[in-house]
Amino acid sequence: MIKMFSRYARALALTAGFVGMLGLAACGKQEEKAAAPQAAAQPRVYLVGVESAYAPFSSENEQKTVVGFDIDVMKALAKKIGIEVKFVPTPFESIFNSLAQGDLDLLISAITITDERKKSVSFSDPYFVATQAIAVPAADTKVTKMGDLKTLTVGTQSGTSGDELVQQVLGQNSAKIKRFESTPLALKELEGGGVDAVVADEPVVKNYIANNPNSKLRTVNDSTFPKEDYGIAVRKDDPELLAKVNKALAEMKADGSFAAISAQYFGK
Predict the structure, then answer these.
(1) Which of 133, 169, 226, 233 is the right S-S partner for 202, CB 3.0 to 4.6 Å?
(2) CA distance 119 to 258
(3) How many angstroms separate the CA atoms of 223 and 246, rounded?
(4) Which residues, listed in sequence order, are joined to residue 143 by a DSSP beta bridge?
(5) How are beta strands 228-230 and 128-130 bridged, if at all?
(6) What is the model's pLDDT at position 38?
(7) How far apart are CA 52 and CA 41, in angstroms?
(8) pLDDT for the residue numbered 42
């Protein structure tokens, strides 16, 4: 009887010890879990749609990085707002659809503010004023105004205000309008004689001619061309972001940082 009790007591002791060890191990794991640092939430990165062939506003350098006036402005705005941004090269003709579908959060790409575009997006306060220009071969002396293009073949960039302007003169479905994915492609076609003229944003045309001195092109200005305001676009359901952009833009204009960026690209 005593021996049986001793064996029973030893069995109880062993069982209690095993349970105690399990308890200690469980406590240790709980303590380790409690002590483990919480993973920091990753900050949201705002995707910014830009055209990558529209110098001096936005273009790719040799390292395939998007650079330009619009890029520097957006970087400065993002710093003031306190957000991170990533630039996404996007063809201009599809840039508004990409924003509407949620693939992008903002657009900055020398976008002219128009009543038609206001129907689908919200624009910031204007940050740049531009106009259109006609590019023709330097030897051409016949083209002095927009009306002189009526019988010519004219190149434009699809979906731009220059395209709309040409349609008003030649007709919306005119076979004499040749549309290109980018303005530099249209100007290259003009160099080769594939079109007689190109209508596009003046700063872009002048930048192309200045950087391609062998192109033998010149610009023609028409006093009837309207002034165009560029704006930053956001979705209509994001008024909070729009308010932040406008506030930061106003601060940049007030503290001189916007003027400093502009001077780098366009002079004083």
Answers:
(1) 133
(2) 28
(3) 31
(4) none
(5) antiparallel
(6) 61
(7) 31
(8) 76
Q: Are 223 and 235 in contact (CB under 8 A)?
A: no
pTM of the model: 0.82
Measured CA to CA, the distance from residue 179 to residue 171 in angstroms comes to 14
Which residues of the chain fall short of a pLDDT of 70?
Answer: 1-41
Q: Say if residues 226 and 164 touch (Cβ distance below 8 Å).
A: no
pLDDT, tens digit, 9 for 90 and up, residues 77-92: 999 999 999 999 999 9
Closest to 116 measured CA to CA, from 264, 257, 233: 233
pLDDT in tens, 32-78: 555 555 666 678 999 999 999 999 999 999 999 999 999 999 999 99
Beta strands 45-50 and 106-107, pairing class: parallel
Q: Is the dihedral of CA 168, 150, 209, 188 positive or negative?
A: positive
Please give the pLDDT value at position 111: 97
Q: How far is CA 193 from CA 6, 212, 219, 256, in A?
A: 109, 16, 16, 44
Beta strands in 117-221 (DSSP E): 121-123, 128-130, 132-137, 154-157, 177-180, 197-201, 217-220
Where b means 16+ CB within 10 Å and e means fewer, 153-172 reads: bbbbbebbbbbbbbeebbee
- Could you tell me if 89 and 51 are in contact, meaning their C-beta atoms sit under 8 angstroms apart? yes
Q: How far apart are CA 190 and CA 194, in angstroms?
A: 6
CA 134 – CA 162 distance, rounded (Å): 9
> 162-165: which pairs have CB atoms within 8 A and are 24 or more residues apart?
162/132, 162/199, 162/200, 162/201, 163/199, 165/132, 165/199, 165/225
Q: Residue 178, SS3? A: strand
Which pLDDT value is given to residue 103?
97
For residues 123 and 229, give the distance between their C-alpha atoms in angstroms, rounded to a whole number: 10
